[in-house]
């Protein structure tokens, strides 16, 4: 196969052009609508996109030892193809009720992807809220507003060619930017951008500190209950040893590997700073014997250590840890979201009940 | 282990498809579903970054996005009902008088195909009128 056929930029351009004309042909309009032709072009475009993703970024899921996770990969390709296919169906479907059903399938497929991304709570919440509530309320509205025969809103589209050019041009630009800015070769799956800056001794200490903090967040089934205070004490000492907190002395850093122009250096220093600040807060909570503060601080310290240590693992108890996070760090956000829901409910009732001649 | 990039590609594609639908479709409900589709692409991005960095912040953001989407859906449905009552159509072009000044109005040139309306058979009026309940009551009291 000639080598220019494997050029990722060519794949992006081909997928964009094919998808643009495919969607243009399938969009509902009075002339130039050809569903089979459009379907063919869209399938070709999806296949080109998949070829781009596979050839440029390799397997979507890997096991710990670097082998391909076959089941996970099959699920990724299946769910993403279903999500894209049903979303194409949603925008090209003339009947809005069928479009709503297609949207429900998009939601279900992306919920499968949420599971692959280790977000089971969000998966359940999305199914309940989107597929359960939003789709059903919109089907109610559709049934309250019946349309017989061909109509302006369902059988016409506004500027179909320009709109598909805009959307697919956007996709092409984003993918091209991703292609340009993402690492290539062996660095692609390297998820330890920060570990290279640490000397071997500090790296070991960070790893140990992470294990102690993680034992508090994720107690195993067989292990005896962890004493939070003692774990915090060990963690804090280890972090203090790993990073000398004197500002002009970077003993924790392997200075040889802090290369010039490495994009990660800045963020590494930021992370170090915030890690040390979190450690100081932990020490303060230890001194004051404040159990609640100790618990929340060791969780945030654990998350920062996880980023520093480089192996990206989410805590296995998703719901418990998500709850801890949103009811400590994002408590104000939760309150505001609740207020927003209340205001939206009042607003919806006020708008929908407005009658002619009665000013609300 | 998971690679971030595949999910970013998927999120971008979902967002772009939703953008096409939002720009070109005229049914208000389909436009709204396309906006939700764009939001779904964004949530996939957030979760992928969260997984990549081993933190739950992405999932917390996703939770807030779902809350906002639920508020949006409730308000949009109420608005659509009011707009439908005003013009008996869900076509967004009916409201194009609200466009920016200096932009010409969109005119539909191609006529829609005419579908013959099915006429249902109508039963002729005949026979006796059914007996009213109050007449029955009168008769029973008289007897």
What does this structure look like?
The complex is a heterodimer of chains A (about 350) and B (about 140). Chain A is mainly α. Chain A contains 13 helices and no strands. Chain A has three domains: about 5-185, Four Helix Bundle (Hemerythrin (Met), subunit A) (Up-down Bundle), CATH 1.20.120; about 195-320, Up-down Bundle (Four Helix Bundle (Hemerythrin (Met), subunit A)), CATH 1.20.120; about 330-360. Helices cover about 70% and strands about 0% of the residues of chain A. In chain A, helix 1 runs antiparallel to helix 2, helix 3 (about 70-90) packs antiparallel against helix 4 and helix 8 packs antiparallel against helix 9 (about 230-240). Chain A is globular, with a radius of gyration of 26 Å. The termini of chain A are far apart. Chain B is mainly alpha-helical. Chain B has a domain at about 25-90: Helix Hairpins, CATH 1.10.287. Helices cover about 60% and strands about 0% of the residues of chain B. Chain B is built from four helices and no strands. Chain B has helices at about 5-25, 30-55, 55-85, 135-140. In chain B, about 45% of the residues are buried. Chains A and B meet through helix 2, helix 3, helix 4, helix 5 and helix 6 of A and helix 1, helix 2 and helix 3 of B.
């Amino acid at each position: 196969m000639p080598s220019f056929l494997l050029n990722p930029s060519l794949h992006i351009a081909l997928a964009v052009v094919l998808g643009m004309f495919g969607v243009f042909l399938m969009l509902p309009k009075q002339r130039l609508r050809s569903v089979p032709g459009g379907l063919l072009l869209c399938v070709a475009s999806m296949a080109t996109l998949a070829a781009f993703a596979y050839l440029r970024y390799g397997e979507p899921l890997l096991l710990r030892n670097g082998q391909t996770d076959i089941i996970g990969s099959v699920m990724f390709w299946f769910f993403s193809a279903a999500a894209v296919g049903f979303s194409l169906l949603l925008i090209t479907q003339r009947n809005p009720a069928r479009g709503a059903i297609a949207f429900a399938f998009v939601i279900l497929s992306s919920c499968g992807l949420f599971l692959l991304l280790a977000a089971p709570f969000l998966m359940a919440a999305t199914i309940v809220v989107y597929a359960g509530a939003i789709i059903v309320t919109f089907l109610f509205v559709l049934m309250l507003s019946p349309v017989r025969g061909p109509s302006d809103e369902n059988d016409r589209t506004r500027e179909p060619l320009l709109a598909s050019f805009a959307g697919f041009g956007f996709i092409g630009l984003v993918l091209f930017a991703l292609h340009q800015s993402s690492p290539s070769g062996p660095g692609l799956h390297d998820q330890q951008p920060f570990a290279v800056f640490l000397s071997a001794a500090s790296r070991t200490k960070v790893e140990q500190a992470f294990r102690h903090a993680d034992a508090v967040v994720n107690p195993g089934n067989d292990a005896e209950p962890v004493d939070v205070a003692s774990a915090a004490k060990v963690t804090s000492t280890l972090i203090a040893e790993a990073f000398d907190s004197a500002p002009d002395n970077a003993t924790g850093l392997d200075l040889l590997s802090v290369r010039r122009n490495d994009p990660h250096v800045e963020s590494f220093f930021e992370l170090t700073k915030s890690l040390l600040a979190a450690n100081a807060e932990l020490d303060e909570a230890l001194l004051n014997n404040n159990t609640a503060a100790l618990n929340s601080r060791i969780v945030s310290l654990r998350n920062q250590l996880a980023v520093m240590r480089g192996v990206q693992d989410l805590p296995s108890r998703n719901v418990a840890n998500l709850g801890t996070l949103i009811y400590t760090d994002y408590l104000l956000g939760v309150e505001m979201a609740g207020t927003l829901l209340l205001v939206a409910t009042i607003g919806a009732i006020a708008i929908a009940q407005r009658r002619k001649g009665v000013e609300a | 282990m998971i690679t971030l990039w595949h999910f970013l590609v998927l999120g971008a594609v979902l967002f772009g498809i939703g953008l096409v639908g939002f720009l070109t479709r005229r049914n208000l409900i389909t436009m709204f579903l396309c906006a939700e589709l764009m939001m779904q692409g964004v949530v996939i991005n957030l979760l992928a970054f969260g997984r990549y960095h081993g933190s739950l912040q992405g999932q917390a953001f996703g939770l807030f996005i779902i809350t906002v989407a639920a508020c949006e859906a409730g308000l949009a449905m109420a608005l659509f009902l009011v707009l439908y009552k005003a013009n008996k159509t869900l076509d967004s072009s009916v409201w194009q008088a609200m466009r920016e000044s200096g932009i010409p109005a969109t005119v539909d040139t191609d006529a829609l195909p005419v579908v013959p309306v099915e006429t249902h058979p109508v039963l002729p009026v005949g026979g006796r009128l059914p007996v009213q309940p109050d007449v029955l009551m009168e008769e029973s009291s008289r007897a």
